[in-house]
Structure formats: C-alpha cells, structure tokens
C-alpha cells in the first residue's frame, strides 16, 4: 500500500517591492501653528504663480510685436515693415498734384528708367490746326517709346498746345501745326528714353541728359521731360514748353544762339538745359 499524500498546494506568489503612496516629507502637522502659517502662504503664492503662467502663455501665443520695440529706419518696429494705423501695410501713395510755381500748377515729376523698349509707337488720332488763323499748315506726328511711364495722348496734346501757342513758331501767322498719325509730315516729336536718345543722337553726345534733333525726329529726352532741368528749378511746366520749342526749332531750320546779355531773356535756341549763360530762362521763340 502506498501512503496517502495530500495534493500539492499552489505556491503563494512572491511579493515584489511594495509600491504605495510616496511617503510624505515630514512637515508641520495640520492644525498646528506652523501648519496654519504654511497654509496662508500657499493661498497667497498660488494666485501669483497662476498670473505669471497666464502672462507667459499669452506672450508666447501673440504674433504681433509689442509697441515698445525700437523703430527701424522704415518707421516700424525693428525688422518689420511700416504699418498703417489699421494694422495693414500701407498702400502705395497716390500722386498728389504738383506744387504751384510762378503761378502755375506743376506736373508731378516722374523718375524715368534709363532704357525702355527701344521701339516707337505713333500716337493715334489727329489734332486740327487752330481755326480762323492765317499761315500755311505744317503736318507733324508724335511718337513715344514703348515702356515709358507717361500717357501718350497727354504728351501729344501738350505738344500740340505748345506749338499752336501764339508765342511759338506760328507767331504772327507764320504757320499752323496739324498733328496726324500717318502720311507725309514735316517732323516727328518723339519722347525717348535716355538710352534711345543717346543712340539716335550720335554723333552728338547727349550723355543720357540732353535732347536733340536726329533726321526727321525732334527727340525729347524722357528724363528731362520727367524731372526738368536745374536751370528751370522747380518750374517743370515751363521747361517742357522750352524743350518742345527748342527741338522743333531745329526741325524748322533754326540753329543755336547765345545769350545776348546778362539778365536778358534767353533766346529759345540757347541750349538752356545746359546753361543760361547769364540770361533768364525763356521757353518761347516770341515771348513778347
């Protein structure tokens, strides 16, 4: 007979390291005087910490620079473009009317690139000579180089106004000017970039600054048309009258003249863009 044995009992699971609540560091007991003081300090510090955290988060999330930054040369905070009061980048400034000089409202001065397309376009349309006037009709046309920052129709209208002014070359019924867009013409008034002016005026040296006559064309340097000349100061309107009359004068057969004396009116065929030679500026062939 075999001895009766009891079935084996499962072994009790071994206990790992006891994990419980972290043991609190020794501190003042609740209800003690030290405990009450610590509680009061906790109530004061907690709102201060919360306010600091809120301010830090708000500063980190804000994308707009503060108003206290040092302005850069553009007038806004350093490294930022200038902004309008509404917070948006300012739109390009509109051209305001020119100042009044010598009793005349001036055209707005325009900066002109050194070179444009190099190709002329004839201004379309026509303008009749003055009605009721005597004198033979002189046909001419107006061209403008593509790419210049001017209105072609406005330029053509100004040329026609100047040429048919009684103080211009038609004075006393000598001639009347008719603008046409095609057919035979006596001359062409051509507004040209400095680069094209220099090329077409050779062998004359215009240096990007002067105008000239070249063949049938009376070439107006667009830089001078845009900003005038130091000899005329701020009076761009009067300088434009001069440069038209001077270059058309060459087309009509007139050569350069000299100043007749200090303080006198400069004849229109004096190279007034370069120097007045002691004379006063004058844009007209017959200024009286």
Automatic annotation (TrEMBL):
List the biased-composition ranges (Basic residues): 34-43
Q: Which residues form the signal peptide?
A: none
Q: Which InterPro entries match?
A: DUF3152
Q: Which domain of life is it from?
A: Bacteria
Using the record's annotation, list all stretches that form the DUF3152 domain.
112-277
Q: Coiled-coil region(s) at which residues?
A: none
Q: Where is this region: Disordered?
A: 1-44, 61-105
Quote the protein name from its UniProt record.
DUF3152 domain-containing protein
């Amino acid at each position: 007979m075999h001895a009766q044995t009891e079935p084996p009992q499962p072994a009790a699971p071994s206990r790992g390291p006891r994990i419980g609540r972290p043991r609190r560091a020794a501190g003042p007991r609740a209800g003690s005087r030290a405990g009450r003081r610590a509680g009061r300090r906790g109530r004061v510090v907690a709102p201060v910490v919360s306010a600091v955290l809120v301010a830090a988060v708000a500063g980190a999330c804000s994308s707009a620079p503060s108003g206290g930054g040092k302005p850069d040369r553009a007038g806004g905070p350093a490294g930022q473009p200038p902004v309008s009061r509404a917070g948006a980048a300012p739109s390009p400034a509109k051209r305001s009317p020119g100042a009044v000089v010598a009793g005349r409202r001036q055209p707005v001065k325009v900066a002109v690139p050194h070179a444009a397309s190099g190709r002329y376009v004839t201004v379309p349309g026509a303008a009749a000579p003055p009605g009721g006037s005597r004198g033979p009709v002189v046909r001419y046309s107006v061209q403008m180089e593509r790419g210049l920052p001017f209105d072609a129709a406005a330029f053509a209208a100004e040329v026609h106004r100047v040429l048919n002014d009684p103080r211009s070359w038609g004075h006393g019924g000598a001639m009347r000017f008719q603008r046409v867009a095609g057919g035979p013409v006596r001359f062409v008034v051509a507004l040209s970039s400095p680069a094209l002016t220099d090329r077409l005026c050779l062998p004359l040296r215009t240096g990007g600054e002067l105008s000239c006559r070249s063949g049938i064309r009376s070439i107006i340097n667009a830089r001078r048309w845009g900003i005038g000349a130091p000899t005329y100061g701020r009076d761009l309107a009067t300088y434009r009258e001069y440069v038209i009359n001077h270059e058309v004068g060459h087309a009509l057969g007139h050569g350069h003249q000299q100043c007749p004396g200090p303080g006198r009116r400069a004849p229109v065929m004096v190279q007034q863009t370069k120097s007045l030679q002691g004379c006063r500026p004058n844009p007209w062939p017959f200024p009286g």
